[in-house]
Write a structure and sequence with these properties.
Elements: E1 8-19, E2 22-30, H1 33-45
Antiparallel strand pairs: 1-2
C-alpha cells in the first residue's frame, strides 16, 4: 500500500515488534516533499486507479 502511494522503502528495523509470540520486523517508508507534490499535482490532473 505504501509503495502504491509513491513512498519508498527506506529501511527495516529487525525484531522490532512482538506479535503472536514472534518478533517481527518493521518497515520504514518515506516520501520526499517534491515527490509528494508531483504526485498530488498529477492526481489533480488525471484520475488515478485505486
Amino acid at each position: 500500500m505504501m509503495l502504491k502511494g509513491g513512498m519508498v522503502e527506506e529501511g527495516r528495523i529487525r525484531g522490532h515488534v512482538e506479535k503472536g509470540g514472534a518478533w517481527r520486523d518493521s518497515i520504514v517508508h518515506a516520501i520526499l516533499e517534491h515527490e509528494w507534490e508531483s504526485l498530488t499535482t498529477l492526481a489533480s490532473i488525471v484520475e488515478l486507479p485505486n
